[in-house]
Design brief:
Strand content: 15-25%
Radius of gyration: 17 Å
Number of helices: 4
Structural class: alpha+beta
Distance between the termini: 27 Å
Largest sheet: 5 strands, mixed
Helix content: 25-40%
Bound molecules: adenosine-5'-triphosphate, magnesium ion
Length: 164
């Protein structure tokens, strides 16, 4: 469905702020765009956000900040989740999107390593892209690009044939 992303994100951010405050992490957002209309699967999209936000929270020390921004181009929306955590070494920048790939060299806790693999699958379902960049002086930014118009039924012709 086509939705207005701003109020949708604001609600998610508000819910997450309560969880983050337990770790004294503040969440700031800048969703200043003119046209926030996009075709998204709301269930998948909220799970993408929850995964990125929970990673940002999990991999940041107490008292840091998480920043969420939404920007636009004529054909796509660009969402960024930025943290002041430990960042991602170059070696891991692509591997972290694979299933069960956890940065074992930094993690002493047992994680399943499924969150980002799910995010990538869900972003690809939106015909978008997800990648990570490191911040100066610390932390990382996960960038999600979602086209405004997504055709969720590329196989509609095949489906039609199937039902014959
Ligand atoms: P799960 O999400 O399944 O509970 P996970 O968080 O380990 O487990 P992913 O979300 O797929 O798995 O992330 C994969 C790895 O990428 C993490 O183990 C961590 O090493 C690294 N990573 C993810 N997000 C961040 C982040 N914001 N800052 C630093 N490292 C991160
Ligand atoms: Mg995770």
């Amino acid at each position: 469905v086509s939705i207005n992303l701003k109020p949708f994100l604001e609600k998610l951010i508000q819910e997450f702020s309560a969880i983050a405050s337990a770790k004294e992490i503040s969440i700031t957002s800048n969703l200043k765009i003119e046209d926030d209309c996009a075709t998204v699967d709301t269930h998948l999209f909220s799970r993408i956000m929850n995964n990125l936000l929970s990673n940002a929270l999990k991999y940041s020390p107490r008292g840091k900040e998480i920043q969420i921004t939404l920007n636009e181009t004529p054909d796509q929306l660009i969402l960024k989740v930025s943290d002041q955590g430990k960042g991602i070494s170059d070696e891991f920048k692509e591997r972290i999107f694979q299933k069960y790939e956890v940065g074992k060299q930094y993690n002493d806790v047992n994680q399943t390593g499924l969150g980002l693999a799910f995010c990538q699958m869900a972003v690809l379902a939106h015909q978008g892209a997800i990648y990570v960049e490191n911040n100066q002086p610390e932390g990382s930014t996960f960038i999600v690009e979602i086209p405004r118009e997504v055709n969720f039924e590329p196989d509609s012709e095949a489906d039609a044939n199937e039902s014959v």
